[in-house]
Fold:
Amino acid sequence: MPSSGPIGVFDSGYGGLTVLRSLTAAFPEYDFVYYGDNARAPYGGRSFEVVYRYTLEAVKHLFELGAPLVILACNTASAKALRTIQQRDLPGLNPVNRVLGVIRPSVEYLGQVSRGGHIGVVGTVGTVLSESYPLEIAKLYPSFKVVQEACPMWVPLIENQELASEGAEFFVQQNLTALFGRAPETDTLILGCTHYPLLLPLIERFVPAGVEIIDQGPVVADRLRDYLLRHPEMDERLTRGGQLAFYSSEDPLRFNASASFFLGREVLARHLPLRG
Ligand code: DGL
Structure:
């Protein structure tokens, strides 16, 4: 019989906590296990091969921790590793478990919110260079126009809790001014990195009025509800108890301090040593 367990949530670092927050609000009765690969974050500037290897390792960790379903709450990992893991690794690893990402749900949601089909995407260098957003958007909405802007400094600022510093303001303004300068007609901005909602107060200051900003957390939670309705065999395998467990590849004490700050609740993580 297929095993039961919590929903696994993975990110390179703290960004996935923005998704976890939405997931626990939408599914308070479900159990969750979060793994942040903080020792190796950020992933944004890393090669395809490296992001794939680290992400596969994280999926194996979460499967071993009992999660039948893993959400890659990381755009960089979703862009660079999800397809390969789903198609090449999952059948050998555990054919009844599932791994989902955050890009497809965000793109699906665009149809409901974009007024004119002019989409801006901010993300890591890895996500932007992968062209995952333009490719997915072209499949679902061929008439939409997409402009991307890589923001390589945002994740390091967030990982270091520099949410309202002068440095954060400088880089957020620089990248958003560049994007809206190139595409002033943009009507919808995807925060294509799960870290970015932590900079939302700053981002809102530099996004022109009337532009819809997509924070992926609520979107992913909404799509997960739909997924579980369509896949009752998976829903039945997800344990309910409202338990939250945290793991980090970094020193848990460092993780606890930042994660508690970002999540607004006490976090007590355990250490998962790196393998590869
Ligand atoms: N939060 C991640 C994302 O959504 C990863 C950022 C990084 O590690 O560079 O892309």
Notes: Residues 48-64 form the longest helix (17 residues).
